[in-house]
């Protein structure tokens, strides 16, 4: 890939500068050295080439029922070990969630694959790559990187400044100009990027915020962990059709809580 770096933007700044897809580059002018906490080689214990372990991970995902060849290819491409702490790289391709700081976790590969597989089953995705996608909960930026290979534009919102900064630093060397990182409360969605062909939440709330439904394009799909009446979380899929919204409740999941405000 020979793409230029994306421009992470603060939501409050972005709100003041309207042009869609031209968000203010908050990271410009910072010394590059600070932005390169990446591994120069394959992680220790993973052998000479992390591609082989990624291929095994992808084979397992396919065997577990992930249908979309695009999702499988994207997960075979993005190096998950870049997004986890150096002490945890040996577990980067295991099907496990891992801590990313500030009490948050990177979702396990099977869950990321499942959510994106559902997203790509939306009617709007059948015509080609998804146009614009919104992710709520950037975390370390892994899923945003995977999404960058599946959608033309990716807007990803994080409410914790520490993780927003971390994702910006981890994503910079990948040079993904279609990923727009936003610092803000994702409960309100991100109106400026709407309508979205896909919306995916990486944190679970008590209900799906109305703003997300409002910002979904006709033919688009929203995938969000949501608390059920029994207090347990399940994956909720909402499709916007010409006739209105259609909701399905799928399997039980365990995501970190969706919280309001910026911290
Ligand atoms: N997709 C991420 C997973 C991050 S975990 C990855 O690939 O690493 C979920 C994230 O959602 C956490 O970082 C948490 O801070 C964030 N979050 C929770 N509520 C939020 C909100 N209202 N707006 C934006 N981000 C939120």
Give the biggest beta sheet.
8 strands, mixed
CATH fold-level assignment of the domain at 110-253: Rossmann fold
What is the level 1 CATH name of the domain at 110-253?
Alpha Beta
Question: Overall mean pLDDT score?
Answer: 87
Strand order of the largest sheet: 1-6-5-4-7-9-10-11
The number of helices is 7
The unique ligands bound to this protein are: S-adenosyl-L-homocysteine
CATH-derived architecture of the domain at 110-253: 3-Layer(aba) Sandwich
By CATH's scheme, which homologous superfamily of the domain at 110-253 applies? Vaccinia Virus protein VP39
Tertiary shape: globular
Could you describe the 3D structure shown?
The chain is α/β, with parallel strands linked by helices. It has a domain of 144 residues: Rossmann fold (3-Layer(aba) Sandwich). It is built from seven helices and twelve strands. Helix 2 packs antiparallel against helix 3. The protein binds S-adenosyl-L-homocysteine (SAH).
Task: Please give a handful of descriptors for the protein shown.
263 residues; alpha/beta; Rossmann fold; 8-stranded mixed β-sheet; two-stranded antiparallel sheet; 24% helix; 26% strand; globular; disordered N terminus; binds S-adenosyl-L-homocysteine
Task: Summarize the structure in short.
The chain is an alpha/beta fold.
Task: Explain the layout of strands and helices.
Blueprint: E1 9-10, H1 11-16, H2 50-63, H3 69-77, E2 98-101, E3 104-106, H4 109-119, E4 130-136, H5 142-148, E5 151-158, H6 161-171, E6 179-183, E7 196-201, E8 203-204, H7 210-214, E9 216-227, E10 233-241, E11 244-252, E12 256-257
Parallel strand pairs: 1-6, 4-5, 4-7, 5-6, 7-9, 8-12
Antiparallel strand pairs: 2-3, 9-10, 10-11
Helix pairs in contact: 2-3
Bound molecules: S-adenosyl-L-homocysteine.
């Amino acid at each position: 890939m020979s793409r230029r770096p994306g421009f992470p933007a603060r939501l409050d700044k972005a709100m003041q500068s309207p042009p869609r897809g031209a968000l203010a580059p908050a990271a410009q002018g910072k010394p590059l050295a600070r932005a390169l906490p990446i591994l120069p080689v394959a992680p220790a214990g993973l052998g000479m080439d992390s591609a082989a372990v990624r291929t095994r991970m992808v084979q397992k995902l396919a065997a577990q029922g992930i249908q979309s060849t695009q999702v499988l290819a994207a997960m075979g491409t993005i190096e998950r070990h870049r997004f986890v702490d150096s002490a945890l790289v040996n577990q980067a391709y295991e099907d496990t969630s891992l801590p990313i700081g500030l009490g948050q976790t990177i979702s396990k590969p099977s869950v990321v694959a499942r959510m994106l597989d559902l997203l790509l089953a939306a009617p709007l995705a059948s015509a080609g790559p998804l146009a614009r996608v919104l992710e709520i909960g950037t975390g370390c930026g892994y899923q945003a990187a995977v999404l960058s290979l599946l959608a033309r534009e990716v807007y990803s919102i994080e409410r914790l400044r520490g993780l927003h900064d971390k994702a910006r630093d981890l994503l910079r060397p990948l040079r993904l100009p279609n990923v727009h990182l936003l610092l803000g409360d994702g409960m309100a969605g991100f109106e400026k990027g709407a309508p979205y062909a896909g919306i995916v939440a990486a944190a679970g709330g008590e209900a799906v915020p109305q703003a997300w439904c409002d910002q979904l394009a006709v033919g688009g799909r929203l995938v969000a962990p949501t608390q059920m009446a029994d207090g347990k979380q399940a994956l909720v899929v909402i499709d916007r059709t010409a006739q209105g919204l259609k909701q399905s409740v799928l399997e039980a999941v365990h995501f970190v809580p969706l919280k309001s405000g910026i911290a």
